[in-house]
Amino acid sequence: MRLYLLFLSCMNLLGVAQSEKVITVPVVVHVTYNQAYENITEDQIRSQLEAINADFSRSNADFANIPSVLQNFLPASTSASNSR
After folding, report:
1. Would you list the domain boundaries of the chain?
2. I want to staple 60 with a disulfide (CB 3.0 to 4.6 A). Which of 40, 48, 54, 83 is the partner?
3. Distance (Å) of CA 28 to CA 46, 67, 82
């Protein structure tokens, strides 16, 4: 949650949070494990990145459940109550 709040704060300071601008952030994923059974697949990594993208683009199914502390980071024309 802290990382999410930090990201949103930075976006807000940059004026991005109040727009519909799409930002592409290069991502590198390092998977560390001791035993082979602890490893995860590339599909699992891709799935989690898709989930994060849905959260940040407000296109996820549970958009209405955004905590009130994060509501002020939404663009003025969007709110959890009118997302559907």
Report:
1. 22-63
2. 54
3. 11, 28, 35
